[in-house]
Specification:
The protein contains two helices and nine strands. The chain has about 190 residues and is mainly beta. The radius of gyration is 19 Å and the shape is elongated.
Length: about 190
């Protein structure tokens, strides 16, 4: 009897899914550099379902590149720094319809760091030292606009809720507790019917 009720509930749900891809503009807060100078890519898949009228729950699985890079102006001042962080990320989002083609979204994401490299002097990339945390927990907020029936454009802000790396020497200053990923994502979402 329980099995029949469960299967009826599953058949009553309407799930949608698809693929997404785009670009990331990233920086690491707490590394004494400023600006979204490190570009990266983002791609993966998603699935969602409507849980209430105009409220959608969405689960994503994605690869995203984060990190930090010194600006061209600072590079001219004889400084150099470039950090690459590669993550597998799982965002869980609540999306709400705001206008006929516009949706707002907010959620959380858990991430696993697959690779971390730094180039501190222009001599080439080495494993990051000190180490970055293997796991990241972040908050997300964004907007999606439906361009066509199966295609939408998305802009999203992604910020670490916990430090991804401690300051050198384990220093902390008031609310400044370490280094945090700060990411702007620009993506296209394709829905497979």
């Amino acid at each position: 009897m329980l099995l029949l009720l469960a299967s009826g509930f599953c058949l009553g749900q309407r799930f949608h899914g698809g693929a997404m891809g785009g670009l990331a503009a990233t920086q690491i807060d707490g590394d004494n550099l400023g600006g979204y100078n490190k570009p990266g890519v983002r791609f993966g898949g998603w699935v969602n379902t409507e849980v209430w009228p105009d409220i959608i729950m969405q689960l994503e699985l994605e690869y995203v590149q984060k990190g930090s890079k010194i600006s061209e102006k600072e590079l001219r001042d004889q400084r150099f720094y470039h950090c690459r962080l590669n993550y597998i990320q799982v965002p869980v989002l609540v999306k709400q319809s705001l206008l006929s083609r516009l949706e707002g979204e907010a959620g959380i994401a858990g991430s696993y760091l697959t690779r971390s490299q730094e180039d501190k002097d222009g001599g080439g990339f080495l494993e990051a030292e000190p180490d970055f945390s293997q796991f990241e927990f972040s908050g997300l907020i964004g907007l999606s606009y439906a361009l066509m029936n199966n295609l939408s454009a998305n802009i999203r802000f992604n910020y670490s809720l916990l430090p991804v790396r401690e300051h050198p020497g384990d220093q902390s200053y008031w609310l400044d507790r370490g280094q945090f990923n700060n990411v702007l994502l620009f993506s296209l979402y394709y829905k497979i019917d």
